[in-house]
Protein: Penicillin-binding protein 2
Amino acid sequence: MQLEKSRRILVFFLLLLVGFIVFLAVAYFKAVLPRKMPTLIITKADIAVRGTIYTQDNYSLARSKKLYKLSFNPRSIDPDKKELFIKLLEIYSHIPRSKILEAFAQTNYTTLSYAISPNTAANLKALNAKLLAYDVFQEYEDDSGKLVQKIGLSIEVSGVDREYPYADLLEPIVGYTRKEQESGLTIPKGVDGIEKSQDPILKAVSHGKVSGRRDIGFNVIQSKGALQQKRYDGFDVVLGIPLKFQQKVEAIVDDAIREFDSDEVIAGVLHPKTGQILALATSNRFNPKSIRKQDYTSLKIRAIESFEPGSTIKPLVYALLLEKKLINPLSAIDLNDGYYRVGRYIIKDDSIMPKNPTIEDVLVRSSNVGMVKLSMLLSGREFYDGLKAFGLAQITGIDLPYEKDGVIPSVRELSQESSAAKASVSYGYRVRVTFMQLLRSYGAFVNGGYLVTPHITQHFIAQDSSIYVPNLPSPKHAISSTTAQKMQEVLIKVVESGTGKAAKVEQIIVGGKTGTARVVASSGGYGETYNGSFFGFAKDDENAYVIGVVTFGSSGQHYYGSQTSAPVFQKIAKELIAQGYLKPIKKDKQ
Structure:
């Protein structure tokens, strides 16, 4: 009996012990674990950004800024302080009260905005600290009974935005970007212009990160214990184009497009020895932050698109004849009273020639008939190789994407005496060149006969302020220095007494050539619109610059290059003097 009683007592105590253990387990899982604080160590990304595009005089044309997303948990807001929270959040975030109220209908974290600016994000972080101090946030139990710790506002990077402070300045040369998703972030990527061509240089290299103890707002506490991995932003790109000069050139082409009934006016200035572009402007610009449907035709950079140049090609052909010693500029030439037949085609002159013209007059007065007759002195191979030596039918290598190479007839076509190919090319038809090719080729006349690689970018700046200069191809030999000097002299005569008088500037030396070409109509054949152009150089005792102007799609009474583009050339040359790039020459030296 006593043994049985002892067993019952033992079983009773065992049952009590099991019950106590169960009680402790329940108490642990119900009370201790739900109240366990989340990890106190967190890691946050330090987002790298795309580099900035600067002008030569340090104005930012395109720059990046981080965008932030603003989130919060409505259930974490103390109901008694809800109104305070809404009022302050509306003031600091500029988000409408109605949208904040909508967020309170959510049962979990909700994002109010993905496009918070850096300044607003900084203010919101300050607000978060104040709200935490006033105990606006509270703990609460979720639907499973788990206690959720109080958490403040979440202000995290959502992506990177691209800003263009000067709107359409230097467009479409600067280009534009599109937004792409990368690891949950919105990142800009270059689509055209410098943004595209220098995208590998501009784009962010690698994101950083910071790890350490957190505060109640889930921000890493900056202390000795915090670990940081440095981020590497993209390189900055510095253009060789000064803002002030570019603005003036854009204003000049804007005036021209208003004056003439034309589709577009393009102007550029090149340093012939270095290849640095000093200005490149078009009348058809756009704001890359708000591209409209009517801007679509302006997105392409027409300076690297091909067109038939008209008479601006004549100096290149003339130079080839001089180089081969096939002509004597002072020799007489029979211009057949301004008419000449090649096969079934009749070529005629628009300009009035002197009574006893010389070969030099052919270029000075821009005789089509004269150029056709002179071009026949070149073999098909000599003509083809000579134009190639001037860089035609090949890209210039300028740092812009999608550059076209143009077209010149084949050696076979240029060798056929009965074909109109050679004749047409001699005065700028059946050949397609780009604005940049012509600008570079005219540079050879004031650069000892050498072609340089035109470039817009001057240098790159790394995050540590190191400067890197792009590697450019060596200059190419196009013509001899002797021929180049002779071409300078004859092009000066074109301006002094020929078709280019409207480009003359009294204080400096100017040489160049006009060009006018009919534009092919959409229905086929040549229509009633014209491309008028003027390419040449402006120089003083020490410096020289090549200037090119093309007025596309002119009609009405004023469409010749001498009427449209030569005056624009003159204004740009005067601006080079006004801004100190060229200095007036004393009269006894001119």
About this structure: Confidence is low (pLDDT under 50) at residues 31-38. The chain is about 30% helix and 25% strand. The first strand starts at residue 41 and ends at 46.
